[in-house]
Amino acid sequence: MTGTPAVEVDRHILEQVRTRLARDGMALTPEYVARALRDQGRPVGDRAVLAVHDALRREVIGAGPLEPLLRTSGVTDVLVNGPDQVWMDRGAGLERCAVTFPDDEAVRRLAQRLAASVGRRLDDASPFVDLRLDDGTRFHAVLAPLARPGTTLSLRVPRARVFTLAELVAAGALSDTGAALLRRIVERRCAYLVTGGTGSGKTTLLNALLSLVDPGERLVVVEDASELRPDHPHVVSLEARPANVEGAGAVPLQVLVRQALRMRPDRLVVGEVRGGEVVDLMAAMNTGHEGGCGTVHANSAADVPSRIEGLALAAGLGREAAHSQLASAVDVVVHLGRDHGHRYLAEVGVLTRDADGLVEVRSAVRFDPSGREYEGAGADRLGVLLR
Question: 367: exposed, middle or buried (C-beta count within 10 Å: 0-12, 13-18, 19+)?
Answer without folding.
Answer: buried
